[in-house]
Amino acid sequence: MTKFKTWFSADTHFGHPNIIKYCKRPFGNIEIMNKTLIQNWNARINKHDLVIFLGDFALKDISKIDEYLSQLNGHITFIKGNHDSNNSLNTRIEYLVINIADQEIFCTHRPEDYSSSYLINLVAHIHEKWKVRKIYHNYLVNVGVDVWKYSPVSINEILEAINEFKEGSR
User: Fold this and answer.
1) Residue 54: which residues within 8 A CB-CB, separation 6 or more?
2) Is the pTM of this model over 0.70?
3) Which domains, from first to last, does the chain contain?
């Protein structure tokens, strides 16, 4: 049996030139951004790994989505983002719950759709705005590329970010 890791990511916005300006991404143009995101992804993800992608993979250009997907390692499960209704991903998954690292974790695109039933909620949509937030007893972790050095993130990195947030809140 091949061992695989589980990774999380969101908000790559492949093919979306305005995202560079909107989120102050450090790329000179869309081609450089796309190439860097693909390189960063493949530097972490192996072909057997699972990636749970929390929305906003690419913008509109349906013809390019297969091109991006063909360059990325891993098996991707897509959660629908607000920009994914106008591309060819056709995902119907609004949220999912996974059990990983002895934690049940709720995954959804928009932070406002988090579930208070789960201690850890993985979210996206807010780009560079914040990495970890606490609402009541729930931790929301943004898995978008803008706060993770334009790369997918592991569960260990997520748990470490929550611990750092807790320590900083004291």
Assistant:
1) 8, 9, 10, 11, 79, 81, 107, 108, 109, 122, 123, 124, 143, 144
2) yes
3) 6-168 (3.60.21.10)
